[in-house]
Amino acid sequence: MARPLLAALLASLALLVAAAPAPASYTSVSVIGDRDGGVLRLPQAVAVAPDGTTYVGDQFTHAIQRFGPDGGFQAAFGTYGSREGELTSVGGVAVGPDGSIYVVDAGRNRIQRFRPDGQLVSAFGSKGGRLGQFRFGSGGSVGQGAGGGISVTASHIYVADTLNNRIQRFDLDGSGAIEFGGFGNSPGRLNVPQGVWATADAVYVADNRNHRVQVFGPDGDFRAIVGAGHGRELGRLYNPYDVAVDAAGNVFVADNMNHRVSQFDALGRPVRTFGDGYGTAPGQLAYIRGIAVDAAGSVYVADSANGRISVFAGDGRFERTIGRDARAPGQFIDPAGIGSSPDGGLAVADSANSRIQQFGPDNGLVGAFGRLGQDDDRLQVAKGVAMTSDFRSWTADTGNDRLVLRDYYGTVLAVVGGPGLGPGRFAGPQDVDVDGGSFLYVADTLNDRVQKLDPGGAPLLSFGPSVPGATPDLLDGPRAAAVAPDGHVYVADTGNDRIVRFDAEGRVAGTFGSTGMRTGHFRNPSGVAVDLRGDVWVVDSSNDRIQRFTAEGRFVEAWGGRGSAVGRFMRPVDVAIGCTGVVSVTDLENHRVQRFLPTDPAVGTCQPTPPPAPPPPPPPPPEPAPVLDVRLERRAGMLSRRGAVVVVTCDRTCRLSGGATLRPRTGAPRVRLTLRARTLPGGRERRARLTLSSASAARLARALGRRRKGLTLDLTLRAASRGAGAPTKLARSYAVRR
Predict the structure, then answer these.
(1) What element of type H or E holds 449?
(2) pLDDT value at residue 623
(3) What is the DSSP string of 290-345?
(4) What's the CA gap between 563 and 494, in Å, rounded?
(5) Under a CB-based contact definition with an 8 Å cutoff, are residues 732 and 703 in contact?
(6) Model-level pTM?
(7) Residues 322-350 pLDDT 10s
């Protein structure tokens, strides 16, 4: 029995050796973007140790970042993955009585405990509905927060088990589970509990979809409700995400959709709100998730959409921020596609930021173009980009199912495509490449094809199911395409774990690769590029490496491997080869671009960088305000029964608006006359009627009685014209009778 077992072990060892990348023949050139270093990508949770050290659970960095009492970055631990010690989506973080850091790993439905230096101590939990199991919800996009909250006392761990609509309590070693709550909206029942804060004698729960905070005893007995339900008024909440309590019993609620902190006193009475209203300025908040209070009573807020921790005094005064926003220039959230510019620079599809970042040959930022949306100048999770020989860029605007053409400095020149199955229409396009003649090759991913378009974006040819002589459904979710100098097109056939080679007419010329971990095999190939000698570079994404082949598909080398050190990758996505021979790779889970120079680079001729864009012409000086003339039309000083008529003249075409009030001289209540806004032709006299409503006319008649008493008409008019710096405002008063 020993010999077969030994043989099996040796075979397994041989497989592992074959799967490891060979030593790479390259020199690291540079890195653009920081994986951690205090850069925050949707911070979800925050906890403060007694000494003021702050721990931030950052959803898209898949890490806990540690900051000193002064707010300076110190270290990070955790990395993307499912193994113990790795994290996917962080839903909550808490500091235990011994200084341990407890983390809700929402994507894997477990609790992990670390030492402050990041060493894993223990883990417990799995997906399910039984005691000791969790269903948190992982928050798969920037707009979705990871579920789950956690709080640790001297004797227990309390976990907000979000989608199971309950709180679970554990001993400090993860045993002895009990539960309380359950789905509902009556007192003591929960609907998507997101956050929890436990003291020695009470447990506070952010009851998200019931728009309230509930208070329980340590054993789960219901005690009270804090908050008056859904709303924006003082004392009301809108999807509260977390809760914290200071030493005096003040309750601070992360009032998520109100973009503020709502404060209540120890009796649950509303005190104040702070950070009110959506905004990006210091002291403003945007979609707040986690909240914590330190020993001195300062309030730490996970200001998620602003990529920072905002710190306030207990009375709501803004103090400072911690962390750097990943939306800042030169930083990334999930960089995907990449294209080389003719000068040796780069264009990068910063996908979760829905923008393209353009860099020069020295990695200096030229500009960041686009933001989330559907208008022509906006993008929606764009994942592909390519540069033409004349420094224009084509973007595969994935979420909007289209292509966007920009000049080097970001001005939109054209938008083509749209959702659909027909020629020139797209479904989730994830990559685009451009050949020497500016013809486009688009990985039309969800349509299982690659489309060739002319330089203006008109469809010419489709590679995929319709290829003559090809097997049905030849391509399965292709994510990248690249054109070789000889006209062959290489497609990353991601769903089939292979590269398909087409000739210039769209006929299959060969395939290479299959599913596996050994060199020459792939797991989710997501990017492909061809250098000037014709070698094919493939991003083997799930194997965390780059592989290089000859034009015919013969394996040359592999390099990389899983990790965050320079030269290693965490889910790389795309590769581009510049005119200097530098190979650039988007390293998605490390949120950076790595650049390498092979020992045998294929070097071409670089073009000079375009000169800076000329400044926009100054706006024309504003025209003077329009001249408005007005007189009141009346007969023998009398007004008509239902209002007044004014005769107005404007010296140019203008928009007239305004109104008037009538006030009796005897002190009776005044009434309002309304003027319907209208456009006046320039230089022509026009009549405009100010009207009394029936109710106002009746009220005035009751005040005046039968006698004709004196009135004052206070008239206010406003005339605005196109191009004028300011409108003309005119106020007149008239003595009238009725």
Answers:
(1) strand 449-453
(2) 87
(3) EEEE-TT--EEEEEGGGTEEEEE-TTS-EEEEESEETTSTT--SSEEEEEE-TTS-
(4) 22
(5) no
(6) 0.80
(7) 999 999 999 999 999 999 999 999 999 99
